[in-house]
Amino acid sequence: QVQLVESGGGLVQTGGSLRLSCVASLSFFRGNNMGWFRQAPGKQRELVASITSGGNTNYADSVKGRFTISRDNTKKMVYLQMNSLKPEDTGVYYCNRVAPYAQVSWGQGTQVTVSS
Sheet holding 77-82: strands in order across? Predict the structure, then answer.
């Protein structure tokens, strides 16, 4: 069974940066499109960035120009570089695969808190 483990979250001030990492327990990334999701307090989980197996990326409008998703298949890892952070970026961040396949079991996520 695939296990996804996210890390790198923390508390930062507005305008700060964080780099999130996600590692899988199996050779899961190869061939899978991957994404970073976030869940803000009281809100549904949303997809903020995705990357295809070939490296093409896509971003939600709210993070475009500030976040960068990348992957290293040999290390079975996906990264999310977050710059110019805003209080509305606060939430728990998760990685998982994206379309055309359904998500697998969610990891514990990593908390990102941006103070104003």
Answer: 4-7, 18-24, 77-82, 67-72
Closest CA to 94 of 50, 31, 42, 30: 50
**pLDDT of 51-104, one tens digit each?**
999 999 999 999 999 999 999 988 889 999 999 999 999 999 999 999 898 889
Give the dihedral of Cα atoms 46, 52, 56, 57; nearest 10 deg: 10
Q: What residues contact residue 116 under an 8 Å CB cut-off, 6+ apart?
A: 14, 87
The two three-digit tokens of residue 103, written as one number: 């998500």
The tokens describing 92, both together, are 């728990």
Please tell me the distance from the alpha carbon of residue 115 to that of residue 54, in angstroms, as a whole number.
35
- Residues 34 and 94 sit within 8 Å (Cβ to Cβ): no
